[in-house]
Amino acid sequence: MTLNRPLSGLRVGVFGKGGAGKSTVTVVLAETLHSRGYPVLVIDADSTNVGLANALGVAHDPKPLLEYFGGAVFAGGPVTCPVDDPEPLAGASLALADLPSDYVAMNSSGVWMLAAGKLGTLGPGAGCDGPMTKIVRDLRVVDLGADAVVLVDHKAGMEDSARGVLTSLDWALVVVDPTTAALQMAIHLARMTGEMKRGVAPATRHLASPRLVELAGRLFRETHMRDIVAVLNRVPDAETEACLRDRLAGGGVDVLGVLHESLVVPQQWLRGDRLQSSLLSADADTVARNLEHRCKTAVPIRSAP
To answer: How confident is the model over 57-87, as pLDDT tens digits?
Structure first.
């Protein structure tokens, strides 16, 4: 049965500066969306940070999809960096049922999890993490059902967005904690999505092949990204919230909602426990409802031909 709800079938990328709380937002939003009736898949796209599997409470830490696809080009494998090679990844459309069980995990709520890979396991001289970015950009799971929501927990900073992952998303959700760095990153990300709206082409001067130049440009032109929105995290009081909202509004970033400061959540991360999302469920439910409302009215970005 199709729910026909506003978020059905969408891909939401979660971004933010280091320590802003991307993974916390990913976990509580995944649990909230699942409780609201959406099938949910979480993709761990953070090549450096660890602990998402524990926080989500899945049965096991899933093996990296980088290994499933044969490894990175830097180690002789077929998976290239999308900046150097925008060519789509072969075989990236797949079914969870076809993956070996150790690549797929699920928690007791029924939230699925996949992981792109971690740089720390590849050894010195392994190259950049661009191949993981390509996996996340191109991956399509075909047996989740039309109502599923895919949440992608990206690495800290702007690197993944600059590599073109925005082109495969419906929404970019940036997590902002009470720091200047988090505010500035949200504003930079809004500026990047604004350039996509205006049809600004990606950087391609390093590509020798005219075919690859055209392919890179087409991927940006065909994006269906709708917009960037912010979630405030670890907000201690109304004065801080008002300041953050004001600064973001000045940078053209709308705020979906607020996760208020919790003393328990950092302790759970430190211990490697499953996050007790019920502590933030009311806040997360507001975020989910506001995103649903935005989805009813937002128009997808269509870059200029």
So the answer is: 998 999 999 999 999 998 899 999 999 999 9
Strands (E), the chain: 11-16, 40-45, 93-94, 105-106, 112-115, 140-141, 149-154, 171-176, 227-235, 254-260
Classify residue 218: in a domain, yes or no: yes
**pLDDT tens-digit map of 142-196:** 999 999 999 999 988 887 787 888 889 999 999 999 999 999 999 999 998 888 8
Residues in a beta bridge with 43: 114, 152
Domain annotation covers residue 302: no
Domain of residue 169, residue span:
13-297
Domain count, the chain: 1
Judge whether 175 and 16 are in contact, CB under 8 Å.
Answer: yes
* In-domain check, residue 226: yes
Give the CATH number, domain containing residue 193. Answer: 3.40.50.300
